[in-house]
Amino acid sequence: MERLELKEVQRLEGHTDRVWSLAWNPATGHNGVPLLFASCSGDKTIRIWEQNLSSGVWSTKAVLDEPHTRTVRSCAWSPSGKLLATASFDASTAIWENVGGDYECVSTLEGHEHEVKSVSWNASGNLLATCSRDKSVWIWEVLPGNEFECVSVLQGHTQDVKMVKWHPTMDILFSCSYDNTIKVWADEGDSDDWQCIQTIGEPNNGHTSTVWALSFNVSGDKMVTCSDDLTLKIWESENIGMQSGDGFRHWRHLCTLTGYHDRTIFSVHWSREGIFASGAADDAIRLFVDDNESQVDGPLYKLLLKKEKAHDMDINSVQWSPGEKPLLASASDDGTIKVWEVVSQR
């Protein structure tokens, strides 16, 4: 087996407070379009970073310092890469459009009573989800002219909702919370009648503390979740044939990865190549991969590598890039972002 390592490509400075989240623009990194991502911070700003195609060097393309008045907690690009949504502790979500290289705030979504923690677009880009410390999840319909209409307010979590994430191929929404559960939401008809169709909690092999993040594999039949209980859990959907009557998949526990982390795991992201990365409060990044030689009843994934001291403080977000040769970006309480590549150790 060749040994792999995580090699630092560049350390990006500019934010003046902790960096909470980052998001790669899905329309970049192929067809000669340089890679680009957004980051957001406790400094109330969003920064847009772009890689120079010839030198490979990253630099700040734009700094968006309006309209948020408090920490910007989460950011997400629409599937087309044309719109950027940013969620803030000021209880609003802003929508930005790239107009000839300038980013303009074209809409502000208000309604949550407390800090907005996360924002996510569905696969077709016609729905947006937000979640909040007010325990609710909101679903917004994207209308022509950058108008957004709230079509459903989902109540079900009993605590702060940390993250929302749409399934990669279906209009099914997942949310994870300080109440230790993951909830699965679907529209039961054509009437915007969104319902919780499954709650994944402690009684069914779920987490025993705050669930911070979740991510899907490329085909969408597996999900990884990370938690304050120091574990990563892998879930698989039982019904792959989606043409059946009710069509909703049921998610079941596949395995738990325990013993790898001794501090809270804040972020997890599954690459298209099948490697998932975790970022945690021990300042380390870990990569996990399918274990083809796993024992019967053993975990089906193994630690590929651990990068100690990847940052000086907590790692809040790890995200794989689009494009041919994926890079990994990490964001930290130390105020920096780092871009990494996976290379073979010589």
Question: Could you walk me through the main structural features you see in this protein, from its secondary elements to its overall organization?
Answer:
This protein has strands spanning 4-12, 19-24, 36-41, 46-51, 58-64, 72-77, 83-88, 92-99, 102-110, 116-121, 127-132, 136-143, 147-155, 161-166, 172-177, 182-187, 194-200, 211-216, 222-227, 232-237, 251-257, 265-270, 276-280, 285-290, 301-307, 315-320, 328-332, 337-344. The chain has 346 residues and is mainly beta. It has a single domain, classed as Methylamine Dehydrogenase, Chain H. It starts with a strand and ends with a strand. The mean pLDDT is 94.
Core attributes:
346 residues, mainly beta, Methylamine Dehydrogenase, Chain H, 4-stranded antiparallel β-sheet, 53% strand, repeat, Probable cytosolic iron-sulfur protein assembly protein CIAO1 homolog, WD40_repeat_dom_sf, WD40_rpt, WD40/YVTN_repeat-like_dom_sf
